[in-house]
Amino acid sequence: MNTMTDRDTHRVIPLMDVRPHGLAVPAAAFSSGTRLLTGGLLADTRGRSLRDLRISVTDRCNFRCNYCMPKEIFGTDYPYLKHADLLSFEEVTRLARVFVAHGVQKIRLTGGEPLLRKNLEQLIEQLSKLRTPDGQPLDLTLTTNGSLLARKARALKDAGLQRVTVSLDGLDDAVFRSMNDVDFPVADVLEGIAAARAAGLGPIKINMVVKRGTNEQEILPMARYFKGSGLVLRFIEYMDVGATNGWRMNEVMPSAEVIQLIQSELPLVPLEPSSPGETASRWGYADAQGRHDPAAGEIGVISSVTQAFCGECNRARLSTEGQLYLCLFASKGYDLRSLVRGQASDADLASAIGHIWQSRNDNYSEQRSHLPFDSGTPVKRVEMSYIGG
C-alpha cells in the first residue's frame, strides 16, 4: 500500500515539463538520390518490419497512477500541451495513411487517457476508412482506464472502433482507489467493461500492472474473476518507463512468479503466440486432463523487464504533438509535425518515415540486463503518459 513519511509530506518537487524536444528528420529523406518511394514495406537495421502504430491523442489523464503519472509531478499546475500543439484529427489521419502504406496493419489509440480527447469518435471514423495496400481494414483498437467507457462505448463502436484494452490494477476497491490516486471506484471501471462487451467491442483485453508491495495480492482474485469470462487478462511487469515514477527493480514481480502463483490454484498450459511480434506470452487454463480448456479462456504475461522481446518489436509510437518514437524507452522522437504543417507532400512524409525506420536499432530491454538496476540515478526517457504504453 502507499505510505508517506513526515519527510514525504514536506517534500517539494519543482514543476517540470517532462516532454523531450524532437530530433530533426534525416536530411537524406529529401535528397533526390536517397529518397524512398511512397509506400513499400520497411525493415530496420535488425530486420524488424513496421506493423503496429500507437497514436497518443492526448497528454492528459484523469488518473494519477504512481507508476505512470504520479501526482507529485503531474499536479494541477503541470504545463499540458495547448490545443494548437496537438495534431488535429486530419493530421493524424494523413500520417496514419502514410504509415499504412508502409506496412502498418494495426493502430492503437492511447494517451494519457484517450477518451478525454473531445470528439474522438470523429478520428476513429476517419481511421476506420483506411485500408492496407491489399485492401484489408486495419485492426483499430484503443487502450483506456475505463473511467469513461460506460458512456462512450456505443459511440466508439458505431464510429468504427473494433476493440478495447482496459487497464485494471485490482478488484479490491481500496487497492484500486489507492493506485489510481484520485479515489476512483473499481465498480465504475467494471461497468465500463460491461458496456464495451454489450456494444460489441471485442475481444476485450484487461491489463494489470503488477507492482510488488502494492497490488500483488490482487493477482489471484483477478485470475478467478476473469476466468471463463471471454476476456483476456494480462499481467504486466512494472516498467522503468520515463524518469518520474521512482522505478526500482525490487518492486518488479517477475512474470514467472505470477504464473507460479496462479498455477498454485488454477492450472495453466502454455499456448503458441497468436501473431508475430506479440508482446504477451499466452497461457491457457487447463482442464482435468491437462489440456487447454477454451471455455475457461487464457491469460497473458508481458515480461517487459525480465524477458526482453526487442528482437521482434514491430511498433512505432506517434506522440500527441507529432513526434515519432521508435521505442517505449526512447529519450528522443523525430519531429513529424513540422513536416505536416510545412510544405511536405505525402511522398516527403513517406520518405521521412522510411528513413527513420530503416535506421532504427533500438533494443533497450535487451540492454537493460547489463545496466545497474539500483543506481538511484534516473535516466532521461520519454514518459509513458506522453506516448502511451
Would you mind describing this structure in some detail?
- The chain is an alpha/beta fold and 389 residues long.
- The protein has one domain (13-387): Aldolase class I (TIM Barrel).
- The protein contains twelve helices and twelve strands.
- The chain has helices at residues 6-9, 89-101, 120-128, 149-159, 173-180, 186-199, 219-226, 255-263, 337-340, 346-358, 364-368, 384-387, and strands spanning 52-56, 106-110, 139-144, 163-167, 205-210, 232-237, 268-270, 281-285, 298-302, 315-318, 323-325, 334-335.
- A twelve-stranded mixed sheet has the order 7-8-9-6-5-4-3-2-1-10-11-12.
- Strand 1 (52-56), helix 2 (89-101) and strand 2 form a beta-alpha-beta unit.
- The radius of gyration is 21 Å and the shape is globular.
- The chain starts with 5 loop residues before the first helix and ends with a helix.
Short description:
The chain is of the alpha/beta class. The protein has helices at residues 6-9, 89-101, 120-128, 149-159, 173-180, 186-199, 219-226, 255-263, 337-340, 346-358, 364-368, 384-387; strands at residues 52-56, 106-110, 139-144, 163-167, 205-210, 232-237, 268-270, 281-285, 298-302, 315-318, 323-325, 334-335. The protein has a single domain (13-387), classed as Aldolase class I (TIM Barrel, Alpha-Beta Barrel).
